[in-house]
């Protein structure tokens, strides 16, 4: 009888059915991870610039004469604890507890803003002491590196406010959970970059 | 609870215990790093090496305890891309320092 293949059903498209149940959230978070890694390369170039120019003071005050390590340690602690509080916020989000989520995100925001305020205060102090971004190659490299990190923290703080408004408006929808995961990746990444900054710029600069 | 342990590909979730251990390890490593510099316990090249090793250790701690990186198969592309970036970063930084040091050396005319 018929050894030919039967005609495909009318709605046959040739696509495998399974592929249509795509893990949209996972793909978005993975895409954001790729962005974070590209940001790592951006910071690597700034670290390379600092490694090459970091000693070219050209008569301007040196980092080891201006920096107060107690002060840097306090800022470092603020950022580290904010990374921890964001983790707890994610746990609250997983429980579906929006109130707990908002309190821990609030704590994260205050700690992050505290870090940024301390950094800006330090920049003003350095600039007044004759170490401005335009003073020498070493100081240009310093402000480019620490300033770029500071701008990232500022972006994270703004994103945090926007996300809280979104969650307040729409609730903990799938989309908002994915956004929260992306911001948490971003926030932890900022702390990892800061570990490199305080080790290479401040601690090794004081030696 | 099983119902809250919903996994997205590329995004694992942690636990309170995990975050607390991560925080404590980070505090110890940060205090150690600042401590050896502030007390001037070690100096010179030794200090640089100790600071760098402590920094790498803290980065690993944060990657594992805060970002929940692990060797499970659903994270294979996260890890692959991360390793690729580590290689790029090494070429960028080591290469820049190497080239510029040689350039400095060659520019010293008459020496």
UniProtKB/TrEMBL annotation, chain A:
Coiled-coil spans in chain: none
Record's bilayer topology term: Multi-pass membrane protein
Keyword Ribosomal protein: no
Annotated transmembrane regions: 32-59, 71-91, 97-116, 151-168, 180-204
Gene Ontology CC, one term: plasma membrane
GO biological process, one term: aerobic electron transport chain
Heme-copper oxidase subunit III family profile domain boundaries: 30-206
Localization: Cell membrane
Main location: membrane
GO MF terms, alphabetically ordered: cytochrome bo3 ubiquinol oxidase activity; cytochrome-c oxidase activity
Top-level taxon of the source organism: Bacteria
InterPro entries named among the record's database cross-references: Cyt_c/ubiquinol_Oxase_su3, Cyt_c_oxidase-like_su3, Cyt_c_oxidase_su3-like_sf, Cyt_c_oxidase_su3_a-hlx, Cyt_c_ubiqinol_oxidase_su3, Ubiquinol_oxase_su3_dom
This protein's UniProt keywords: Cell membrane, Electron transport, Membrane, Oxidoreductase, Transmembrane, Transmembrane helix, Transport
Any one Pfam family match given in the protein's UniProt record, by short name: COX3
Annotated family: Belongs to the cytochrome c oxidase subunit 3 family.
Annotated function: Cytochrome bo(3) ubiquinol terminal oxidase is the component of the aerobic respiratory chain of E.coli that predominates when cells are grown at high aeration. Has proton pump activity across the membrane in addition to electron transfer, pumping 2 protons/electron.
Binding partners and assembly: Heterooctamer of two A chains, two B chains, two C chains and two D chains.
Record protein name field: Cytochrome bo(3) ubiquinol oxidase subunit 3
Organism from which the protein derives: Aliikangiella marina
UniProtKB/TrEMBL annotation, chain B:
First-listed, main subcellular location of the protein, grouped into a coarse class: membrane
Pfam families, sorted: COX4_pro (PF03626)
GO biological process: aerobic electron transport chain; electron transport coupled proton transport
Membrane-crossing segments per the record: 20-39, 46-69, 81-101
Subcellular locations according to the entry: Cell membrane
Keyword Electron transport part of the UniProt annotation: yes
Protein known as: Cytochrome bo(3) ubiquinol oxidase subunit 4
Organism, scientific name: Aliikangiella marina
Phylogenetic lineage: Bacteria, Pseudomonadati, Pseudomonadota, Gammaproteobacteria, Oceanospirillales
């Amino acid at each position: 009888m018929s050894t030919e293949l039967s005609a495909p059903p009318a709605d046959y498209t040739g696509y495998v059915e399974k592929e249509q149940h795509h893990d949209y959230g996972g793909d978005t978070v993975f895409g954001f991870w790729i962005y974070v890694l590209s940001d790592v390369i951006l910071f690597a170039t700034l670290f390379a610039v600092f490694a090459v120019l970091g000693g070219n003071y050209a008569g301007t005050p040196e980092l080891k004469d201006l920096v107060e390590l107690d002060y840097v340690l306090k800022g470092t602690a603020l950022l580290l604890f904010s990374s921890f509080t964001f983790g707890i916020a994610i746990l609250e989000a997983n429980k579906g507890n929006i109130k707990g989520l908002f309190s821990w995100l609030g704590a994260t925001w205050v700690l992050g803003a505290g870090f940024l305020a301390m950094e800006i205060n330090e920049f003003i102090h350095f600039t007044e002491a004759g170490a401005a971004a335009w003073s020498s190659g070493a100081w240009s490299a310093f402000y480019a590196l620490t300033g770029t990190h500071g701008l990232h923290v500022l972006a994270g703080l703004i994103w945090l406010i926007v996300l809280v408004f979104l969650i307040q408006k729409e609730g903990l929808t799938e989309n908002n959970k994915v956004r929260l995961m992306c911001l948490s990746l971003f926030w932890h990444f900022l702390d990892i970059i800061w570990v490199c900054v305080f080790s290479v710029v401040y601690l090794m600069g004081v030696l | 609870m099983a119902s809250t342990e919903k996994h997205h590909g590329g995004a694992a979730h942690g636990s309170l215990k995990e975050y607390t251990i991560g925080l404590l390890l980070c505090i110890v490593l940060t205090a150690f790093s600042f401590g050896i510099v502030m007390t001037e316990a070690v100096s010179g090249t030794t200090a640089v090496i100790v600071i760098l090793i402590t920094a790498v250790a803290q980065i690993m701690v944060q990657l594992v305890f805060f970002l929940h990186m692990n060797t499970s198969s659903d994270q294979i592309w996260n890890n692959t891309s991360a390793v690729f970036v580590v290689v790029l970063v090494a070429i960028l930084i080591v290469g820049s320092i190497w080239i510029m040091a040689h350039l400095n050396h060659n520019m010293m005319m008459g020496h």
